[in-house]
Amino acid sequence: MRKPSPLFTIAVRYGAVAAVLSIALNIAMFYMNRHPVMISPYLDFRVFLYGIFIFFSLKEYRDFHNEGALHFFQGMFGSFVLVATAGVLGSILYRIFGAFETNFIPEYIRLMTEYLKSAPEDEVARVGKETIERNLQALPSTNMGQIATLYLVQSFGIGLFISIIMSVILRKQPKP
Question: What is the pTM of this model?
Answer without folding.
Answer: 0.93
